[in-house]
Amino acid sequence: MERESEYQKLLQTLKVTDTSAYERLVEEVDIVYHKLKFIPMESRPRVALVSNIRDLSQDFSLLTKEALEIAGGSWQASLHISEADKIIVVQQNELLYADLPVVLEEDSLAQSPAIINNELYIIQQDVFENASANAFLKQVEIFAEIIQAKYFVYGHDGQDWVQFDLR
């Protein structure tokens, strides 16, 4: 038996508690699904979402993982970060910019497709601090802007996330 997704659980709760939020979330996520329906799963980029750059940990909810996958990415565990096509790092504080150059010198990271192709992104911590329907939708939008940039522009670039230019 297949496990019910966290997104489906969120929808069930919203359907009972906030029908307008339910309708908006369904509509917006359906738009993302529709734009990405012709991109096969095996063609979607492998994305490593990292909560702490020092140890490459991935301390995220299942709902955040699903947001990344809805947005057109394929979840990449940090154990296999060397194979990631894109790396997204959460900025918890200003020390991230001091830590990044040191971590990026490690061979497993330096030789990854993400680093070779200048696909390193920084997302602000506050994007992950709320478990509401609006916060989930914002995560989907941000991930979509990063992962499938030619299909999505929501206006979060420069405010909630930036590309860390390696060149």
Task: Describe this entry's structure for a reader.
The protein has 167 residues and is of the alpha/beta class. It is 43% helix and 13% strand. It is built from 7 helices and 5 strands, in the order ααβαββαααβαβ. A 5-stranded mixed beta sheet has the order 2-1-3-4-5. Strand 1 (46-50), helix 3 and strand 2 form a beta-alpha-beta unit. The protein is globular and about 50 Å long. The termini are far apart.
Global shape: globular
Compressed to H and E, one letter per element, the order equals: HHEHEEHHHEHE
Structural class of the secondary elements? Answer: alpha/beta
Number of extended strands: 5
Q: What low-confidence regions span 5 or more consecutive residues with pLDDT below 50? A: none
Query: Total helix count?
Result: 7
Biggest sheet descriptor: 5 strands, mixed
- Within the largest sheet, what's the order of strands? 2-1-3-4-5
Nearest-integer average pLDDT:
93
Write the layout of secondary structure elements.
Elements: H1 6-17, H2 19-36, E1 46-50, H3 62-70, E2 74-75, E3 86-91, H4 96-104, H5 107-110, H6 113-116, E4 120-124, H7 133-147, E5 161-163
Parallel strand pairs: 1-2, 1-3, 3-4
Antiparallel strand pairs: 4-5
Helix pairs in contact: 1-2, 2-7, 3-7
